[in-house]
Write a structure and sequence with these properties.
The chain is of the alpha+beta class. The chain is about 25% helix and about 30% strand. It has 2 helices and 7 strands. A 7-stranded mixed sheet has the order 4-5-6-3-2-1-7. It is globular and about 40 Å long. The mean pLDDT is about 95.
């Protein structure tokens, strides 16, 4: 099963995008957007930048937990992962985003 995007509206009226793997696990979460059109542009940005390994920043949280962020070519933050138990798991997460981000499937849960 292929990955897909979920577009949701928060209780506060903002829009949020998650990229999910085929097993329905969240592999990348976007920032919050004020407008739906901006969230849709965020999906396009994930598709454009997500296939480039160099756009991922491999990081450690303050607690030493590995995670990654995806940035656009201009350095703007596009999205971030959840925390992982190991650097190898984090790197698997990056590979999963690279493999799943081109998907055309968007589940629009705002309607």
């Amino acid at each position: 099963m292929k990955g897909y995007y979920e577009l949701k509206k928060t209780d506060g009226g903002k829009f949020h995008v998650t990229l999910k793997a085929g097993n329905h696990e969240v592999i990348l979460s976007s920032q919050l957007y004020a407008e739906k059109s901006n969230a849709e542009n965020g999906i396009d940005s994930i598709r454009t930048n997500g296939t480039h390994d160099a756009r991922y920043e491999r990081k450690l949280s303050a607690k030493g937990e590995p995670y990654f962020s995806l940035k656009a070519q201009n350095g703007q933050l596009i999205g971030a992962s959840e925390m992982y138990g190991s650097e190898a798991s984090r790197d698997d997460g990056i590979r999963s985003v690279i493999n799943n981000c081109p998907t055309p499937t968007v589940k629009d849960l705002t309607v």
